[in-house]
Amino acid sequence: MARVEVEGLTKRFGRVVAVQDFSLKVEEGELVSLLGPSGCGKTTVLRCIAGFERPDAGRIIVDGQVLNDVPPERRNIGMVFQTYALFPHMTVAENIAFSLMIRGRPREERERVVKEMLELVHLEGMEDRYPHQLSGGQRQRVALARALAMRPKVLLLDEPLSALDAKIREELRGEIRRIQKTLGITTLYVTHDQEEALALSDRVVVMNMGIIEQVGTPAEIYNAPRTSFVARFVGTMNLLQGRFESDGHFVWKGTMFRIRPHPEIRGSREVYLALRPERLKVASLPEQIPPDHNRIPGRVEWVTFLGPIGRLTVRSNEELLQVDLPSDEAVRFPIGSLIWIHFHPESAHLVPKEP
Amino acid sequence: MIRWVLFVFLVLYIIVPMLMPVIFSFSVFWQDILPQGFTLRWYEAILTRPANYEALMVSLIVASSAVLLNILITVPAAYALNRMGSKWGQRLREGAIILPLVFPPLVVGTALLQAFTRPPLALTGTLWMVIIAHAILGFPFMFRIVLAAFQTIDERTLSEAAASLGANLWQRMRYVLIPNVLPGILSGALLVFAISMGEFEVTSMVAGFTAQTLPLRLFQQIRNDMRVASAITAFLIYVSFLSFILMTYLGTRMRRLQAT
Fold first, then answer.
1. What domains, with CATH codes, occur in chain A?
2. CA of A128, closest CA in chain B: separation in Å?
3. pLDDT by residue (tens digit) across B170-179?
4. Which of A44, A334, B91, B166 is the most buried (most CB within 10 A)?
């Protein structure tokens, strides 16, 4: 198990800057996700750590050892690919034992490790199958077992679940987390799926256009986004663009809101107010609203049924806001009804507006 | 119904003419509608008449050498070109496949004659010249197949997976890449072999008296002894047909592997 440090990593492809001045410390046994849209540089960071790409600047340090000049085959870092990358001409057992075969380990050890690994990923008895005889989920389990067989210092996963069906994705997500915890292996996980990142990470690094937007626990990322990009990218978010007044109020299109202060926002300036749909409440009459709540009048434009919740799309001041209510409550507000959206000051979060 | 009619036309158009020399090569005599008698005499003549036998050996040596030369050239070339990103890589890959095919054999023959007449490369008329010519003619076909093999196995990702598991370049080649592109290499090798065995045009230009291949011999025999000529033709048909069957088999193997 190891500590991973990335210091000031920069990588260019031609004139395109894929990653700029990326710094991150991953503690022993921690699972950190790199989250962002495609092309944000998250995979490039992973490939630099694995040794497949050479950084233009910065250092990759594992357990205090600078790895920049160490070729991938001598880094002892396991990698799992989106496309599985199993060796098609080898059986499951041969795939898993590949790293041990390369290292010239005796047959008994290889057989023991294969057995252990298959147990770990719940694929007992599959030793003699070939990759093309396995389902996508099973293939990725084999790929995981293969990467873990050599007891790597660090495990890297590059969108490991993106090629799988939703149901299997969720199942395997839990498996990955369980295995990672069992082995206590330091892990970096690249994904564009914010739900995945929130569900299995100790910390999440949100990236956009080659730079880090925010690093934090899933709860921090979700509840207190630091930039409007993070607010928009993670979950569903209503972003009201308005003005923060020096008296501590937020003003949106002539309406004044009481809000929780933000440590970095002082003085009068343009900001966003971020409101999660599930933190908003709806009342049909203003008398029903608690006195300390902020209120926005609006008209229901659309209702989407999402199983446990119903999502109201409400037009207010020429803008559309999303409000999530329990399904049985949502049916009380049909399309066209005039309503009041209200929320407690603690439910809103200020986000600085980039210049 | 219409499908059957079309199928019959195909048979009449392609298969029957190809079968004629095969039938002829086994018959003692063929003057009327049906051939008469069964014999292997004409095949024997390929092996027993020194000029025929020598031509067969020259052809086998040339074809094997052209195959060997092409394995040495196409495998590294396909590996390297498959890895070239960007627009230039794509252009190079396409160029390497298409460019050699658009030059008429006559042009290739002339070019080779002019390129290899001066010392230190005065090879015209030697066996070497024929081998080089056949290797060049076979290259685009083999390169295309080997490149496709590297592309379908997603060589880059497989190599990276192997590297992350501790395999160095040599081990990646030995244990991962070569076993997976082998069907492609064999398939391409067979094609080069078949092309070389049947090549006439360029060979007739660059080969001297020392390097008479089977097709050149065949061309002479057509005027002298039609029966031996049919046996040679039939033999060349077998070579092509066998290569075709083996390549189809290797193709299905390849597809099964890439299904992962």
1. 4-228 (3.40.50.300), 237-352 (2.40.50.100)
2. 16
3. 999 999 999 9
4. A44
Q: How far is CA A170 from CA A80, A209, B225, in A?
A: 17, 28, 76
Contact B126, B209 (CB under 8 A): no
Q: What is the pLDDT of residue B255?
A: 66
Would you call A89 and B179 a contact, using CB atoms and an 8 Å cutoff?
yes
Distance CA(A280)–CA(A324), nearest Å, equals: 7
Burial of A137 (0-12, 13-18, 19+ CB in 10 A): middle
Least confident of A16-20, A189-193, A250-254, B252-256: B252-256
Beta-strand relationship, A77-80 and A16-26: unpaired
> What pLDDT, on a 0 to 100 scale, did the predictor assign at position B225?
77
Q: What is the assigned CATH class of domain B53-258?
A: mainly alpha
Show the DSSP H helices in A105-160 as ranges: 107-120, 136-148
- Examine residue B21 and say whether the peptide bond preceding it is cis (omega within 30 degrees of 0): no
| Chain B: residue whose CA lies nearest to A83 | B157
Q: Tell me what pLDDT residue B213 has.
A: 86
* 3-state SS, one letter per residue, for B48-108: HCHHHHHHHHHHHHHHHHHHHHHHHHHHHHHHHHHHCCHHHHHHHHHHHHHHHHHCCHHHH
Mean pLDDT lowest among A214-223, A325-334, B9-18, B135-144: B9-18
Average pLDDT score, chain B: 84
Give mean pLDDT, residues B35-56.
Answer: 80
Span B198-226, pLDDT tens digits: 888 888 888 876 778 888 888 887 787 77
More confident residue, A23 or B43: A23
Q: Taking CA atoms, what residue in B is nearest to A53?
A: B160
Write b or e for each residue in B21-51: b if 16 or more Cβ atoms lie within 10 A of its Cβ, otherwise e.
bbebbbbeebeeeebeeeeeebbebbeeeee
- Would you state the structure tokens that stand for residue B228, as one six-digit string? 């031996």
- Taking any CB pair shorter than 8 Å as contact, residues of chain B touching chain A are 153-154, 157-158, 160-168, 171, 175-176, 179-180, 256-260
Nearest to B157 among A78, A85, A131 (CB): A85
Q: Are strands A211-216 and A255-258 parallel, antiparallel or unpaired?
A: unpaired
Give the pLDDT mean for B98-126: 78
β-pair type (A31-35, A186-191): parallel
pLDDT at B30: 67
List residues of A whose CB lies inside 8 A of any B CB. Answer: 50-52, 71-79, 81, 83-89, 98-99, 101-103, 130-132, 139, 143, 146-147, 150, 156
Residue A32: both structure tokens together: 């950190």
